[in-house]
């Protein structure tokens, strides 16, 4: 099974419960390790649709955000921490991140919060299947959550405002710190 699919299944077990996990595996099975990206994406789409139909959106968010925590590389976190140490303030820090195109390259402050904008979908899995549920984008929210929690050394709250998968022109996330 692909590591992304495995991470999602593990997150279902941990965050939605053993019964939800067993139900998903019983209905959809587990993908072979060498499954094509398109098959992996279709599998994840089916799982998220099932979770979304049978449970509240909050559960899907709780499943996908931890996947985003695992999707970000340690190298990106280390590089971003160095930028933060160099910056005079948060605005300058975001400018440095934008120069390096970390976090989509379109980060700015708005009413004391960081706004992260993706002008394109960076998620390969989402691009490999039609109609991936927008709840998949909570993975990106988790990516931002892990990044800024690590940099600021405190818990941050990330909210998905709208996404390309919802039909918007871009993906927008609000980071409260």
Structure described in brief:
This protein has eight helices and four strands; from the N terminus they run ααααααββααββ. It is an alpha+beta fold and 177 residues long.
What does this structure look like?
The protein has one domain: Muramoyl-pentapeptide Carboxypeptidase, domain 2. 56% of the residues lie in helices and 12% in strands. The chain has eight helices and four strands, in the order ααααααββααββ. InterPro entries: DUF6144, NO_sig/Golgi_transp_ligand-bd.
Assembly type: single chain
The proportion of residues in beta strands is 5-15%
Largest sheet: 4 strands, antiparallel
Structural class label = alpha+beta
CATH C-level class: Alpha Beta
Q: How many helical stretches?
A: 8
Poorly predicted parts: none
If you average the pLDDT, what whole number results?
95
What portion of residues is helical?
55-70%
Named CATH topology: Muramoyl-pentapeptide Carboxypeptidase, domain 2
CATH architecture call: 2-Layer Sandwich
Q: Count every beta strand, where a strand is a DSSP E run of 2 or more residues.
A: 4
Q: How are strands sequenced across the largest beta sheet?
A: 1-2-4-3
Number of domains: 1
Which radius of gyration do the C-alpha atoms yield? 17 Å
Q: What global shape is seen?
A: elongated
- N/C terminus separation: 36 Å
Helices and strands, in order, run as HHHHHHEEHHEE
